[in-house]
Amino acid sequence: MSNPRVRQRYFTSGGTVRYPVALFGTMVTMSVPLTAQAADGEQLRLLHVHAHPDDESSKGAATTAKYVADGVRVVVATFTGGERGSVLNPKMDRPDVWENIAEVRRQEMLKAREVLGVEQVPLGFIDSGLPEGDPLPPLPEGSFALMDPVEAAEPLVELIRELRPHVLTTYDEKGGYPHPDHIQCHRVSMAALALAADPEYRPDAGPIWIVPKVYYQMGFHRLRYAALDMAMHELGMDSPYGERLATWEDLNYEHRITTRIPCSEYFEIRDDALRAHASQVDPDGMWFSVPLEVQARAWPTEDWQLVYSALPTVIPEDDLFAGLRPVPPDEPDLTDLWVI
Ligand SMILES: [Zn+2]
Taking the model in full, what pTM does it have? Predict the structure, then answer.
């Protein structure tokens, strides 16, 4: 299933404005539905920064599908091509897939971005692979995780200055998942945010841009898995999460959540996008073992940590763009409330 509202988003008649915007240098006129308007009438823009193809579909993808359906411009930046990824789907574990993994993953990404309705920008770095063994082997020379974060930030700075996103999401300082490319994704994203706002850095790359709101993706936390586990047991079904919960170490992680986006009606699109990465996920595996209606009831949100906001907002939030939208005349002025 593709996102059925994507193609309609510019044709909504009620409550829209026509607004000229620059799309990578070309001036076009488009209608911006109210659900996607920034306070100045421009289309809201969301930039997700990820390490590999498939991360955009396994982390926050229902949030993405929701905002795309609302008419928000969503761009995914992917640092690496996933060239050192394993084949994780037994049905795709074939020599021709292994031999052509970079091209296979490129094609899978094309499918996933169609399903999600996003634009995607490959940033051109080489996957570091997930080192295994004791002791761990060194990372391959030239791989993304070995790069100087400031040097590696350059293409992302260019993208930020061109796109001027209202919201940028990335991973937390531990990567959200301990893959060296995910930890590096955090480092490089944070460097790029600072450099994009620095007038001394690459003045030829366009005017500076201070991203108004920055979030960490918080999908893998104990509360969610515990809720899904309990819901499965209540239905008499086998839960895939028992072992994971029993050995869960970081019990404080979940307290970082500031923002929960209700998006259960987009879980199916999220799963379709993930299945598009056929070499990376077993369609009969754990990712898909909890029925969508159980997920929608037990944990109907995707979760985020607001780490920077140039605007007043109120925690908890249920919208990544809280504070960025036009304020209706009868809404209270939030200026005096809690500023992060
Ligand atoms: Zn990844």
Answer: 0.87
Q: Is residue 320 part of a domain?
A: no
Task: Output the domain CATH number for residue 32.
Answer: 3.40.50.10320
Alpha helices in the chain (DSSP H): 55-58, 61-70, 95-99, 101-116, 149-152, 154-163, 180-196, 222-234, 242-246, 267-276, 292-298
The rounded Å distance from CA 182 to ligand 1 centre is 6
Convert the pLDDT of each residue in 145-184 to its tens digit.
999 999 999 999 999 999 999 999 999 999 888 899 999 9
**Parent domain of 76:** 6-220+255-309
- Asked if the structure places residue 330 within a domain, the reply is no
State the pLDDT confidence band at 29, using cuts at 50, 70 and 90: low
pLDDT interval class at 17 (50, 70, 90): very low
How far, in Å, from the CA of 178 to the mean position of ligand 1?
10
How far separated are the first and last CA of the chain, in Å rounded? 38
Distance 101 CA to ligand 1 centre (A): 15
- The CA 181 to ligand 1 mean position distance, Å, reads 7
Q: What is the pLDDT of residues 262-295, one digit of tens each?
A: 999 999 999 999 999 999 999 998 889 999 999 9
Write b or e for each residue in 62-79: b if 16 or more Cβ atoms lie within 10 A of its Cβ, otherwise e: bbbbbbbbbbbbbbbbbb
Distance 256 CA to ligand 1 centre (A): 21
Report CA(13)–ligand 1 centroid distance (Å). Answer: 39
Compute the distance from residue 300 Cα to the ligand 1 centre, in Å. Answer: 23
Rounded to the nearest whole angstrom, what is the distance from the C-alpha of residue 293 to the centroid of ligand 1?
27
Q: How far is the CA of 202 from the centre of ligand 1 (A)?
A: 29
239-266 confidence digits (pLDDT tens): 999 998 999 988 888 999 999 999 999 9
Q: Which of 218, 164, 151 is nearest to 196 (CA)?
A: 164
